[in-house]
């Protein structure tokens, strides 16, 4: 993880502002953090020191069950918060957050500014909007598993997780997240390769036809 300093930080803050989300000045104590692919932004079970606002990149949310199984439960994209549940709740079991591409976040120290944030009506209105959209998307994900074929859901998953055109997620993770069998997943991936949507490269896949995957994924959004 890199924390931007000096001129690099100044230029990034100058070119990227989230001042409109707050009633008080946040620029002077806002940090800028950059995470590499597969780097942990928050470790599971450890309360974060910052409230993050994602400016660039994508991340994945993981949880470990009592039987030791680790599951992917959701995605984080640009303009999403990380650590908002820990800000709002004194007691909350923190999920693991891992960058799936290079990810740049604004980082606001929680413990120093928690009271100020929780008394800021403008920030709380924006946070409420974010949480309502997040809850709606989570509900939609579960309904999609019943309403749409794997082809549509896998296309959307590939587009969300690919980094620079390369899809490299573990099959067992995908099966768990999409609620499908290993055999069914491999069958659809083979179909995608036969149709030239993807090209297999070792254990990974290179996206060859973005437009075809977008067409399949778009069906989920039009329902």
From TrEMBL:
Q: Which domain of life is it from?
A: Bacteria
Entry protein name: Transcriptional regulator YeiL
């Amino acid at each position: 993880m890199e924390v931007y300093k000096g001129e690099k930080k100044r230029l990034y803050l100058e070119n990227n502002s989230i001042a409109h989300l707050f009633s008080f000045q946040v620029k002077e104590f806002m940090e800028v953090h950059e995470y590499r692919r597969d780097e942990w932004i928050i470790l599971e079970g450890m309360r974060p020191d910052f409230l993050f606002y994602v400016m660039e990149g994508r991340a994945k949310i993981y949880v470990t069950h009592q039987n030791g199984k680790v599951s992917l439960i959701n995605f984080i994209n640009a303009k999403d918060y990380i650590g908002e549940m820990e800000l709002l709740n004194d007691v909350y079991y923190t999920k693991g957050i891992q960058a799936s591409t290079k990810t740049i976040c604004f980082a606001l120290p929680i413990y120093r500014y928690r009271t100020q944030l929780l008394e800021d009506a403008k920030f709380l209105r924006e946070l409420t909007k974010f949480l309502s959209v997040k809850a709606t998307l989570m509900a939609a994900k579960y309904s999609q598993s019943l309403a749409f074929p794997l082809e549509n859901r896998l296309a959307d998953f590939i587009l969300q997780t690919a980094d620079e055109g390369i899809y490299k997620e573990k099959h067992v993770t995908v099966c768990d997240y999409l609620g499908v069998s290993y055999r069914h997943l491999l069958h659809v991936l083979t179909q995608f390769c036969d149709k030239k949507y993807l090209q297999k490269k070792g254990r990974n896949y290179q996206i060859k036809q973005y437009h075809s995957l977008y067409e399949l994924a778009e069906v989920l959004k039009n329902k």
